[in-house]
Design brief:
Strand content: 35-45%
Organism: Paenibacillus ferrarius
Protein name: DUF6843 domain-containing protein
Largest sheet: 5 strands, mixed
Number of strands: 9
InterPro entries: DUF6843 (IPR049293)
Order of helices and strands: HEEEEEEEEE
Structural class: alpha/beta
Helix content: 10-25%
Number of domains: 1
Length: 124
């Protein structure tokens, strides 16, 4: 009986270790847009004269201005993306994936910067 208990406990511990080591460690990226924003969002990374993004635990917060253009000193990191409209009271409304598209990034060059862009709106 003790042998089976030891084997079961060992399997559970190994399973837990496997789960912890394979969990997605990439940060979540939350883009906060002005209410009813439509157009291209452009984030330029590696800009030393600009402030870093706000980070809450394992989440980066992007406060996108009305122009749609944001510059940050952060380096671009991969991870899941969520996009929200923010009203005047600070309330967030999630933008469905159907309303943002064309997510792309390019980088390198002489200035060693990376730019990420995507479009908010409908196909119409």
């Amino acid at each position: 009986m003790k042998k089976y208990l030891f084997i079961a406990l060992t399997i559970m511990v190994l399973g837990l270790i496997f789960l912890i080591t394979t969990t997605n460690k990439n940060p979540l990226h939350i883009y906060l847009l002005p209410e009813n924003f439509v157009g291209e969002v452009e984030v330029t990374f590696d800009q030393l004269d600009y402030p870093p993004l706000t980070k809450e635990r394992n989440t980066f917060i992007y406060h996108i201005p009305k122009s749609g253009k944001l510059k940050t000193s952060n380096t671009m990191e991969s991870g899941p993306v969520e996009v929200y409209y923010v009203d005047n009271q600070g309330q967030r409304k999630k933008v469905s994936h159907e309303h943002f598209s064309g997510v792309s990034s390019h980088g390198g060059g002489e200035d060693n910067q990376t730019v990420a862009t995507f479009f908010i709106g409908t196909k119409e």
